[in-house]
Amino acid sequence: MSLTFEFATPAPVPTPAPDRVTLFVDVILPLPLPKLYTYRVPYELNDSVVIGGRVIVQFGPKRTLSCIVAAVHEMPPKEYVAKYILEFIDDAPVVTQPQLKLFRWMADYYLCTLGEVINAALPAALKLSSESRIQLHPAFAAEGTAYPLDAQEQRIVDALGGEDGKALTFTEVGDLLGIASFHKVIKSLMQKDVIFLFEQLADKYTPKVVKKVRLAHRYISQDAVEQLFAELASKPKQIDVLLKFLQRVPVYRDEHLNQVGLEKAALTSSPHLSPSAVNTLIKNGILEQFDQIVSRFPLDENPVAQLQYQLNEAQTQARDQVLDLFGRKDIVLLHGVTGSGKTEIYIDLIRKALDGGGQVLYLLPEIALTAQIVTRLLRVFGSRLGVYHSKFSDNERAEIWNGVLSGRFQVVVGVRSAVFLPFDNLALLIVDEEHESSYKQYDPAPRYNAREVALMIGNFQGAKVLLGSATPAVETYYMARQGRYGLVMLSKRFGEAGMPEIELLDTRKAREAKHMHNHFSADLLAAIEARLAQQEQVILFQNRRGYAPVVACQDCGYIPKCQSCAVSLSYHKHAHELRCHYCGYHEGMPTQCPACGSRALRTQGFGTEKLEDDLKIMLPQANVQRMDLDTTRAKNAHQQIIGDFEQQKTNVLIGTQMVTKGLDFENVSLVGIINADAIIHYPDYRAHERAYQLFVQVSGRAGRKGKKGKVLIQTRDTTQVIFDKVIRNDYQEFYEYEIAQRREHEYPPFTRMIRLTVKHMDQELAQKVAIRLVQELADRLGRSPVLGPEPPYIFRIRNFFLQEILIKLPREHTVLKQAKLDIQAAIEIVRDQKEFKQARLVADVDPM
Ligand code: ADP
Ligand code: ZN
Ligand code: ZN
């Protein structure tokens, strides 16, 4: 394929018939197709072609789809007769030229197709297909729209009408209007916020509504309110409420604030105010109640405040060093211990970049993107800030996408998929917690690492990239040491808080001395109790969810396993179920052994659920909450749990990795790691790096805002090398130790790795395909860089048997590029074999 992404060459000047040019476009369908398809442009639409814009085409006998125009030319395809484009949707690109260039690079680098990249990149609301459906937007249903609707638009609105929120498929819309080209009408209605789009009924959009109060209009004058206070003189409780309201919403300073109002709950849930007084004021028409549709990340307080903290000396110095290094280098690593105040440095740099007229992308790992940080950023950047979160609905994502295109959002804070947004003028990219594995997408393709993509975007757009971490990835630190990246250190926590004190608890000894209570050593339990007695909070970390990973029959040894995967089923007590953590299969917990009928079924090992259960029994006075995948599935559950902990409604938080990241609680003085060994002994070359990062990050939750925290780590073997470095918080020493291992065993950063996985329902065929693939690879690359095939530890998932091949390549760019072409070729050859038709081949570049 030799496509060039030349940008919207100004639409060809319409030439009078009969010598009109015949135009063709190559389009990227949002499907995993290896090549682009060519369609013909109807003459009368020659002027409408926009590169990067969407068009509707027919694909397959019944399906119509929107796709992106990648190129325009005058060459008919050789192998087939091009079909006509059905409709042009956009007058301006929705995918920009820099994006097309980036997507092309991603497809090449990550060994996938351009269609797969586009599919991941575009929010569903920008992907129209004959299966899409539309529904009235709740905001329109409630308030109507300020925009005029034309006759066609009005007909759609009437058909959708009513309160019950009827939905129409695109096919139905086409029938209704009696025309085939109705997509522009739909686009227009979407832009006016009259309708929104969804793929399945289950995706229906439910806006978040809050009850608010404001002052009745007639009291917005000094005189009126003085009179009011005089009238209420004998009702001190109502006066208290009014005073509180006026303190939070100073309408006499700025009358507009009354429009924003105040959440009713801020008054009714205050311990100092009487809820019935609030209601009396509403009943008497002094306060007015109203509903407001709010964003998921509201400005909870005074929306006009734009405050920025003053950087302290260390922060100022670090910031200046970053700026200085940016003069010479495109990439800088900010290595700052947990709680050193990196966020404020980012904020300062973002402000500078915006002042210079550039755009900013601020990436955070999934879990760290909480209301805490978003609220902080909104306070400084207000409506210029867009937030891109994976739990957002498609429409919310499309809104951010369009907002970046239109220039409404100059700075976006988002998770990994925010790298796909249509920036074209970035000045700065920040990758916070750059070591995080959640920047890597495992499935489906493109299996990209957002950190690497950010580096490439910086390169393409001439933007600077700042990587931040308390525990940098070994690869990143290596680049900094080599002088390829600039390096800035922040070695003290912000304010008075010192680094926490870390201590090991020997569970083997404790067990011998009969000092273990369930999975808690007596020392850990005593420490928890002591902290709770001081009204302080505790975080406990355990890297496994559910109640127990294994159930076993005490009489015959039978262990229930998943029928589709090679794993034992985990017991989940709350649901009283056995569940597979790989495919989601679940069944009721059996009362007797399916093999021998014995009733002696016992659980082995433990997860967060068991810890929660045990702790609630052992410390009944404690308020224990659990945060893991099981308790955070609902859209706002995560925020809720964090909110409760923040407001100290709960005092012990037990959780998986979710509790280790980016959270900043003032009152946490103790962190416990329940089972360190399971983390250290994970079968992967990165196990030590992960363990170090995890221990240091979770420790970072202890003792902020002036209090010195404590961390207790339970382990069976206190002599393991890594502990010593964690305890002394000595990243340098950890790095020296780890990089030596990597060099010796030729792991990254000294090599690049590509993992190929063969999946087949038939175990023997999986092996056969893998062996053949290894042959093809060895023919091209030589045998020595190709390792395997081998079945992975969990060798069967969702009925597919797995075989893995690992390829280790030198880092040199040119070698790597050629090797990838060779790998593609080898994969193609194997895919084309008839007998291997059912096999799936997956390539993962830089696997994590
Ligand atoms: P890090 O991201 O490096 O772990 P944070 O950015 O979370 O650290 O900062 C730690 C704490 O210190 C936060 O509560 C933050 O609000 C506070 N903080 C940081 N810098 C300042 C500053 N210049 N003024 C006031 N508070 C600050
Ligand atoms: Zn049995
Ligand atoms: Zn399974």
Task: Kindly describe this structure.
The chain is an alpha/beta fold and 848 residues long. Helix content is 33%, strand content 21%. Helix 16 (450-461) links the parallel strand 16 (426-432) and strand 17. Helix 1 (97-109) packs across helix 16. The relative contact order is 0.07. The structure holds adenosine-5'-diphosphate (ADP) and zinc ion (2 copies). The site of one zinc ion (ZN) has 8 residues, from loops.
Which secondary structure elements does this structure contain, and how are they paired or packed?
Blueprint: E1 24-28, E2 37-40, E3 54-59, E4 63-73, E5 87-88, H1 97-109, H2 114-121, E6 133-136, H3 138-143, H4 151-160, E7 167-169, H5 170-177, H6 183-191, E8 195-198, E9 208-215, H7 222-231, H8 236-248, H9 257-260, E10 262-263, H10 264-268, H11 275-283, E11 287-294, H12 313-326, E12 331-336, H13 342-355, E13 359-363, H14 371-381, E14 385-388, H15 394-406, E15 411-414, E16 426-432, H16 450-461, E17 464-469, H17 474-481, E18 486-490, E19 501-506, H18 507-512, E20 516-517, E21 520-521, H19 522-533, E22 537-541, E23 550-553, E24 570-572, E25 577-579, E26 586-588, E27 601-604, H20 608-618, E28 624-627, H21 637-646, E29 652-655, E30 668-673, H22 677-680, H23 687-699, E31 710-715, H24 721-727, H25 731-745, E32 752-760, H26 763-781, E33 786-790, E34 796-797, E35 800-809, H27 813-831, E36 840-845
Parallel strand pairs: 12-17, 12-18, 13-15, 13-16, 14-15, 16-17, 19-31, 22-29, 22-30, 28-29, 30-31
Antiparallel strand pairs: 1-2, 1-4, 3-4, 3-5, 6-7, 6-8, 9-10, 9-11, 20-21, 23-27, 24-25, 25-26, 32-35, 32-36, 33-35, 34-35
Bound molecules: adenosine-5'-diphosphate and zinc ion (2 copies).
